[in-house]
Predict the 3D structure of the following.
Amino acid sequence: QVQLVESGGGLVQAGDSLRLSCAASGRTFSNYAMGWFRQAPGKERDFVAAINWSGDSTRYADSVKGRFTISRDNAKSTVYLQMNSLKPEDTAVYYCATGQGRTTYSVPNYWGQGTQVTVSS
């Protein structure tokens, strides 16, 4: 069974940086794409970023492009989300996700429990 465990969330000020981590287990990590999503209070869960199985292709939501960077370490079965220049509108629960595909358009069907990111103005 696939398990995803996020860490690294917290309370920061606008302009600060945070790095989220997601440790995966239960299958061969390097065979599958990984992604990050977020859900703000009262809103739907939105796509943030995705990375393909090998790490040489990434995709971002327009709202985070140029500020966030997704990366992966296949030897550690971990995916990261480096978040710079954080804004109050980035406040949300951030979820790690994965599916059955290898590309950045893979539809996720496994989710982590989420980690809270709060950005104060």
